[in-house]
TrEMBL record:
UniProt-recorded name of the protein: Carbamoyl phosphate synthase small chain, chloroplastic
Keyword Ligase on entry: yes
Region feature Disordered, mapped onto this chain: 1-29
Record-stated family: Belongs to the CarA family.
Membrane-spanning segments: none
PANTHER family assigned: CARBAMOYL-PHOSPHATE SYNTHASE ARGININE-SPECIFIC SMALL CHAIN (PTHR11405:SF4), CARBAMOYLTRANSFERASE FAMILY MEMBER (PTHR11405)
InterPro entries: CarbamoylP_synth_ssu, CarbamoylP_synth_ssu_N, CarbP_synth_ssu_N_sf, Class_I_gatase-like, CPSase_GATase1, GATASE
GO terms assigned for molecular function: ATP binding; carbamoyl-phosphate synthase (glutamine-hydrolyzing) activity
Species the sequence originates in: Abeliophyllum distichum
Pfam hit, one: CPSase_sm_chain
Lineage: Eukaryota, Viridiplantae, Streptophyta, Embryophyta, Tracheophyta
Annotated PROSITE patterns: GATASE_TYPE_1
Catalytic reactions on record: L-glutamine + H2O = L-glutamate + NH4(+)
Chain ranges of the Carbamoyl-phosphate synthase small subunit N-terminal domain: 121-251
Length: 495
């Protein structure tokens, strides 16, 4: 929470001229290493006299490491002689109780500020460009390495946290206020959080939502995921836009020097690593759940017919499965290493290649599987699945400068000319120039012109680089599931 004597940590860098921020996301610079200097500024507390929301008392429960705080809505006044504010006798005064984040008071000694009753900076995010960002930790503690990417979604942090495509990455939310709706079990996109950590500006002190079952901090701590707040996310985002995605190390470990952490960030890389095998299921299973009727949408154009679909789990988001089930599919989910021959033996009406984390050129075994399946049954690729299809056709993928992560990316559907606002999460893209004749670019990202969708009619193949299932995000692209049904229907009618 904000405190009167809040210590403001700013980072000053002697970085090169940063006059322009290039818009193009389709090439990658290596970051420029620069020495950085940290300095601290102290701000004196502003005088508080009257304020509408007044903090009354705080009860710290040692066993649960939690605080319960009481607030009054109305007008309260501070009198110098009173330790507690006096509530003006008003019919408008209301009392309410807010759940607050657990704040560890025991680990402040390392900073020399053990006597302070509020949380002080106890974590560092160091980037491979040598910059050091002091922050406050929540969730798990420890030391973690990963690639830092920024996500521009305004809502949906829980779906983002459980999207397996973020394995190996720190997600920095550009929306400054995170945690206000807590978490609930219905919004999970996978069985666990695979991301390296969460970086946010401000952690909401209260959780208020009718579906909320837990605070964000408790949720992350239970899943052993690190989070930091009170960090200048705008400055880091500008740096990532300028220099490209950077590897970072997040640490609450005071025994590690800045140099050690910087070295760790420079000796790890996400490129060339198979991250799919760590997130995929290990055995096939049947998926049954549809999108909950309360949340279901886009009933137009649904087939009554049922299609049998094999879904390759490269890190599949559950909403892809829910949407397919809502469109009338019976789905068998199979692991990333499931042989193509076994899939074809199952005689599916169609095969879905899912989203998944990391470098698509680091999983040649998956490309081989895709190659063996295309042309034999209708296929639909989403994100990683789209990149694998691109490679299976003989095309190449490349790493973008800082990728696309967010729920507000405009895409033009070249087949009907419409613009869809889409949910995206990828750092790699297919180079359309590398694709063979017959491959059609069906969608283009309007921010940078990159390839956002492919089709190859002869091979009954379609794919999107982004997330039509959204979750979180707009539903503009949902009809593409209907197009996949059409593709399967046409093929069934031929048989
Ligand atoms: N959402 C995804 O499937 C991500 C694809 C791939 N890992 C990328 O970053 O480009």
């Amino acid at each position: 929470m904000e405190t009167p004597n809040r210590r403001i940590t700013r980072l000053k860098t002697t970085s090169p001229k940063r006059e322009t921020i290039p818009d193009s996301n389709t090439f990658r610079h290596r970051p420029i290493t620069k020495e950085t200097t940290n300095f601290l500024k102290f701000k004196s507390p502003p005088p508080i006299r009257h304020q509408p929301l007044e903090f009354l008392s705080s009860i710290y429960t040692k066993e649960t490491n939690k605080k319960t705080m009481e607030f009054a809505l109305g007008v309260a006044t501070h009198f110098p002689s009173c330790s507690k504010p006096q509530i003006i006798n008003s019919p408008h005064v209301r009392f309410l109780s807010l759940k607050c984040h657990s704040i560890s008071l025991s680990d402040n000694s390392s900073t020399g500020l053990a006597e302070r009753p509020w949380k002080v900076a106890d974590a560092r995010l160091v980037l491979e460009d040598g910059s050091i960002w002091r922050a406050k930790s929540f969730g798990a503690s420890g030391t973690q390495v990963g690639e830092v990417v920024f996500n521009t979604s305004l809502t949906g942090y829980q779906e983002i946290l459980t999207d397996p495509s973020y394995a190996g990455q720190f997600v920095l939310m550009t929306n400054p206020h995170i945690g206000n709706t807590g978490v609930n079990f219905d919004d999970e996109e996978s069985r666990q959080c695979f991301l390296a950590g969460l970086v946010i500006r401000s952690l909401s002190i209260s959780t208020s939502n009718w579906r909320c079952t837990q605070t964000l901090g408790d949720y992350l701590a239970e899943r052993n995921i690190m989070g930091i707040y009170d960090v200048d996310t705008r400055a880091i985002t500008r740096r990532l836009r300028q220099d490209g995605s950077l590897i970072g190390v997040l640490s609450t470990d005071v025994s590690k020097t800045d140099e050690e952490l910087i070295n760790a960030s420079r000796t790890w890389d996400i490129v060339g690593v198979d991250l799919i095998s760590g997130v995929s299921c290990k055995a096939p299973y049947e998926w049954i759940d549809k999108t909950n009727s309360e949340w279901d949408f886009n009933f137009n154009g649904r087939n009554e017919e049922t299609f049998r679909v094999v879904a390759y789990d490269f890190g599949i988001k559950q909403n892809i499965l829910r949407r397919l089930a809502s469109y009338g599919c019976k789905i068998e989910v199979v692991p990333s290493t499931w042989p193509a021959s076994e899939t074809l033996k199952m005689k599916p009406d169609g095969v879905l290649f899912s989203n998944g984390p990391g470098d698509p050129s680091a999983v040649p075994y998956a490309v081989e599987t895709v190659k063996e399946i295309i042309g034999k049954v209708p296929v639909f690729g989403i994100c990683m699945g789209h990149q694998l299809l691109g490679q299976a056709l003989g095309g190449k993928t490349f790493k973008m400068k800082f990728g696309h992560h967010g729920g507000n990316h405009p895409v033009r559907n070249l087949r009907n000319g419409s613009v869809e606002i889409s949910a995206q999460n990828h750092n790699y893209a297919v180079d359309p120039e590398s694709l063979p004749e017959g491959a059609e670019v069906t969608h283009v990202n309007l921010n940078d012109g990159s390839c956002a969708g492919l089709a190859f009619s002869q091979l009954k193949l379609m794919s999107l680089q982004y997330h039509p299932e959204a979750s979180p995000g707009p539903h503009d692209s949902d009809p593409v599931f209907g197009e996949f049904m059409q593709l399967m229907k046409q093929e069934k009618q031929k048989a």
